[in-house]
Amino acid sequence: MFTLVLLGPPGAGKGTQAVRICDSFGFVHISTGDMLREEIGKKSDIGVIAADCLHRGELVPNELIIDMAVRKLESLKEERGVVLDGFPRTLEQAETLSRLSEINMAISIAVERGVLLDRVCSRRTCIHCKATFNASEVNGVCRRCGHKLYIRDDDRPETFYARYSVYEERTLPIIEYYRKKGLLSEVDGNAAADDVFNKIAKVLSEGCGGNTDDKH
Ligand code: AMP
User: Fold this and answer.
1) 89 an active-site residue?
2) Assessment of whether the complete model's pTM goes beyond 0.85
3) Which of 60, 164, 170 for mutating ligand 1's site (highest number of atoms within 8 Å of CB)?
4) 160: buried, middle or exposed (CB in 10 Å: 19+, 13-18, 0-12)?
5) Is the bond preceding 157 in cis, omega lying within 30 degrees of 0?
6) Chain segment 56-112, per-residue pLDDT in tens
7) Would you report the helix, strand and coil content of the chain in percent, each value rounded to 5?
8) Residue 61: CB partners within 8 Å, gap ≥ 6?
């Protein structure tokens, strides 16, 4: 199984690009943020802890997320490939993940801070398939599956600033971690989603080494 880690600050387009990669390369999307939002919806034990962290823009505790993500990864080991979106987010998560599973590639999507704030504040998310759109491009309805769109609780400006600081402090070191391992590719994410995807697809096609049945 080809395992790709997608890195980037909030609003970099990790979710959007993960969906496109999966559609194009036949991979499975693992979003720890979506998994947590599902737990919150179910009001499970994990959901109750996570709700407060998400609302404040903080990370949920490592022990809770690592266990959840690793179980999900194991359940998908027969798949062609997976895209990890939002995991790992701390050095401890990255180190634990490397001990438990082979990582084939990490792609970091870099976007300027001002662009991120605009994107996050105008982001609309599908209640069903979790696809995201810019508010100006849609009319409250998902273009992918037709379900309703909503504004995520943590996509408010004040929560964005908290999330961005957490990214700088706790997630940025992971970029160096994967660079040292020779696994990192960096992509400029300031452009339109189609252009960013083309760059990612190129890097990925080269990195897969013909290993996957690339449909792109
Ligand atoms: P996302 O949908 O990836 O933006 O994640 C939304 C929120 O879920 C984050 O701001 C964190 O509160 C929490 N979260 C998602 N993934 C992780 C992770 N790997 N470690 C800790 N918290 C996470």
Assistant:
1) yes
2) yes
3) 60
4) buried
5) no
6) 999 999 999 999 999 999 999 999 999 999 999 999 999 999 999 999 999 999 999
7) 50, 15, 30
8) 49
